[in-house]
Amino acid sequence: MESTIGSLDSSVNQVFLGGQKVIIDTDPGIDDSMTILMAFQTPEVEVIGLTTIFGNVSTVDATRNALFLCEIAGRPDVQVAEGAHEPLKGGEPRIADFVHGSNGLGEIYLPPPSGKKVERSASSF
Fold first, then answer.
1. Contact 85, 45 (CB under 8 A)
2. Keywords, A to Z (predicted)?
C-alpha cells in the first residue's frame, strides 16, 4: 500500500510541477488560439508540440497560425508539425472560414512567422 501511495504522490507532483507533457492537435482559429495561449501559461502542463490540420482554415494556414502563436507567446521551443491536407477518404476538405474568417484569426494582418515547421508529419510527431 505504501508503494502505491508513494507512486501516486510522485505522479501528482509531476503534474503540478509542470511535468505533464502535451501535444495539442489543432486547427487554430480564434477558439483554438485562445486555448493554446492559455496552455502556454498553465504551469500544470508543458506544451511540447502543436500538430495542425484543416478545419477552421486550411492545413497550411493552420500551420502558419500555430507558428505565429508560438512566436507571439515567446515559445520558439514548441515544435509545429503539419498534418494532412485532405480527408482520409479523399475529396476536398471542408473549411469553416465563415466562422473565424479566411485566415482563422478574424482577418487580422499576420506577418509571416519566423519559425519553421518540423520536417516530419503530424502523424509521426
1. no
2. Glycosidase, Hydrolase
